[in-house]
Amino acid sequence: HWTAEEKAAITSVWQKVNLEQDGHEALTRLLVVYPWTQRYFSSFGNLTNVTAVAGNAKVRAHGKKVLSAVGDAITHLDNVKGTLHDLSEIHAFKLHVDPENFKRLGEVLVIVLASKLGSAFTPQIQGAWEKFVAVLVDALSQGYN
Ligand code: HEM
């Protein structure tokens, strides 16, 4: 259900992503913009302000893990659901993450990509990414059904 243009838009942007740096920024934005998400990461230490989150090595390491899983989905665009099946179950049954938060992470990820690419993040590229984020959120939410 992807056009060749959509696939190219998603993979070409992903080639420019730095998993650790951009993952850290996305997770930082999640924790600061939507502070209720901090409750899931109580083992990560102090996350109460932007300076603490930005300097937190656990947030950095975890941001890289999250974006690696996104990259895994991107290399399997025709089977995102199957690729993220186990990860979805972990978030549902073990971590008890409210699936609404997957949308929030998708939103901050698009903002990180847009600020990184500037005018190269064209409306057409944004359109493909919004569609990918919807597929990503749907795949991560499957374990809740
Ligand atoms: C763990 C990916 C969204 C909370 C993980 C792990 C991955 C991952 C790969 C490691 C799983 C393992 O250890 O086997 C993702 C992806 C997301 C996403 C791809 C969305 C695009 C979220 C959101 C939250 C969340 C929105 C909460 C607001 C957690 C927590 C852990 C975890 C608490 C365990 C952290 C730890 O103690 O090490 N996630 N995640 N995740 N995720 Fe997510």
UniProtKB/TrEMBL annotation:
CDD domains: Hb-beta-like
Keyword Cell membrane: no
Residue span(s) of domain Globin: 1-145
4Fe-4S as UniProt keyword: no
GO cellular component, one term: hemoglobin complex
GO molecular function: heme binding; metal ion binding; oxygen binding; oxygen carrier activity
GO biological process, one term: erythrocyte development
Keywords, ordered alphabetically: Heme, Iron, Metal-binding, Oxygen transport, Transport
Pfam families: Globin
InterPro entries: Globin, Globin-like_sf, Globin/Proto, Hemoglobin_b, Hemoglobin_oxygen_transport
Lineage: superkingdom: Eukaryota
Family of this protein: Belongs to the globin family.
Protein name per its UniProtKB record: Hemoglobin subunit delta
Biological source species: Xenopus tropicalis
Upper taxonomic lineage: Eukaryota, Metazoa, Chordata, Craniata, Vertebrata
